[in-house]
Amino acid sequence: MKKIVLMALASLPALAFAQTGKYTVQGTIGALNAPAKIYLQFRQAGKTSTDSVVLKDGKFQFTGNVGAAPVIAYLELNQKGTGPGYKDYKGIYLENGTINVTSKDTLASATVDGTKTNREDALYTIAHKPVDDAYAALEAKRKAASDDVKKSDAFIKENSKAEKAIDAQDVQINKKFIQDNPDSFISLNALESYAYGADYVDIAPLFNGLSPAIKASESGKQFAERLPKLKAVALGATAPEFAEADTAGKMVSLSSFRGKYVLVDFWASWCGPCRQENPNVVKAFNHYKGQKFTIVGVSLDRPGAKDKWLKAIHKDGLAWTQLSDLKFWDSKTAGLYAVRGIPQNFLLDPDGKIVGKNLRGEDLENKLEEIFGKI
């Protein structure tokens, strides 16, 4: 299942205070001239920094100091020079050395090389291309289908089967890259994606196999701090207790559902993949709600967006308990469950033990049929 992962610029590590080197970002984008501008954005000392330069014959250059660890940044092209807008952008890694960015036309299609991490990122992009292409083709097929076709059981099953095959390919590509590149910061990003659908027993060995330098980096330390949380929500573990406000503002605890199988479903009204998955969740709920089964939705909607949350609940027909602290990626419960990507879910047995994770489409139906039998 294609998911939305916490990768916003505001969430990325800030540059280290100790400066150990100098970066130069230089390149050529066609033959553009003023008013066209290139913008460079990254995090420094807890704040987002933005620099810009006017293109001259397509050429541009940025320089600055950088810490020991690479820092992800975004280059953005605005041909009108009116400010950054993420319409034509390229992610790069700022690190000691010269980073070359070249394209005949758009920034999004530019090639990036010149430093270790950017070269490794290019290799990862090539390795991951079959998955990206497959997701794009599947999304195009979904958009081309009529609403009636998309609601049909045949389409849902076919889509679910295709997603499952792509997900399996994604897992293997990430795992191989991590194992083949233990001294790469890109492997930490790949591990983040891998951790979305994997269990602790598979995640921990991959992290432990990374080089001491990568594990000792700020990002490495942050991932290490998450490992106990990932272990706490591993298959067989007792799900951590939480309490959140429902749509009426009443506090509801997870333990109040003991005695039933409970699907804890993390989603948000702004999350496209979540909304696409909701019909499958509705179908499962309607099929098994007469049994000892229910769903608890935990939304990562933004502060001040309660109206959008409620509207999505109504539109998608989510007739089960819905909870949220409306804190976006700072959701307390999402943090407790080490959720860094949505949609994501955890199936609990009547004693609160986790017996399933990330069950989508037919997988959710099959798991519930395994528990309750054919109904």
Describe the protein's architecture and organization.
The two termini are 26 Å apart. The protein has helices spanning 116-144, 147-151, 153-180, 185-197, 200-208, 212-216, 218-232, 272-288, 306-316, 332-336, 362-372; strands at residues 4-5, 21-29, 37-44, 47-54, 59-66, 71-78, 89-94, 97-103, 111-113, 243-245, 251-253, 261-267, 293-299, 321-323, 341-342, 344-348, 354-357. By secondary structure, it is α+β, with helices and mostly antiparallel strands. The model is unreliable at 7-19 (pLDDT under 50). Helix 3 packs antiparallel against helix 4 and helix 8 packs parallel to helix 11. A five-stranded mixed sheet has the order 14-13-12-16-17, with helices on one face. It has a four-stranded mixed sheet with strand order 5-2-8-9. It has a four-stranded antiparallel sheet with strand order 4-3-6-7. The chain folds into three domains: 4-112, Immunoglobulin-like; 118-232, no CATH class; 243-372, Glutaredoxin (3-Layer(aba) Sandwich), CATH 3.40.30.10. A hairpin with a 2-residue loop joins strand 3 (37-44) and strand 4. It is built from eleven helices and 17 strands.
Label the CATH architecture of the largest domain.
3-Layer(aba) Sandwich
Mean pLDDT: 92
Widest sheet, order of strands: 14-13-12-16-17
Overall outline: globular
* Main β-sheet description: 5 strands, mixed
Which stretches of 5+ consecutive residues score pLDDT under 50? 7-19
CATH topology of the largest domain: Glutaredoxin
CATH class of the largest domain: Alpha Beta
Q: What is the terminal separation in angstroms?
A: 26 Å
The percentage helix is 25-40%
The number of helical runs is: 11
Query: Roughly how many Å is the radius of gyration?
Result: 22 Å
**Order of SSEs, N→C?**
EEEEEEEEEHHHHHHHEEEHEHEHEEEH
When the domains are counted, the total is: 3
| Annotated CATH homologous superfamily of the largest domain | Glutaredoxin
